[in-house]
Amino acid sequence: MPPSTVRPVRLGVLDESELVTHGLAGMLRPHVARLSVRPLRSSAGHVPDTTGLDVVLCDPFAGQDVQERLARLPALAPAKVLVYTWHDHPHRRRRALDAGADGFLAKDAPGQDLVAAIDAVLRGDRLSQPAGTAGEQDHDFPGLSQRESEVLVLIGRGLSNQEIAERLYVSVNSVKTYVRQVYAKTGVTRRTQAVAWAHEHGWTE
Length: 205
What we know:
Strand order of the largest sheet: 2-1-3-4-5
Number of helices: 8
């Protein structure tokens, strides 16, 4: 969390099942000194009071009445709003951010990426770039996932692991994992070899 934070960041989890809430609490347990998790429930179409909370995780795309839930996002202020959903798609990201969300993160992201996203919205950064639409993924590399392709493009542009982490709003450890996966899948051992492999497979800067 930001160095100026002297108390745990208070994280609300809106309208999630007990299973998801407990799962989040367990995933974030290594960060318990910096994060506290509190379940929130809306009622009769109204959002709960978020006074005193720093960030609220919510999933407006779960179930029906998506437009109604998106319209209620501004009412979660003064807390920052981080949409946390299984329904990751560029169109949904745009809808959430246009509706007033401060960030968007897929639920399959590891805990360290969730913490990095919370850090980002608390700093005032807007996690507004859907995966693959900000110029990071200019090529679908054979055998690589979307995220691995993004990382390979950024390696090719000369970014360090730290710079890649900041660009993609993930942790440095996640970037290192993606780099290792890229190396393993492409059969290379160095960044220069990875860049050469990318060019061989049609990528141009």
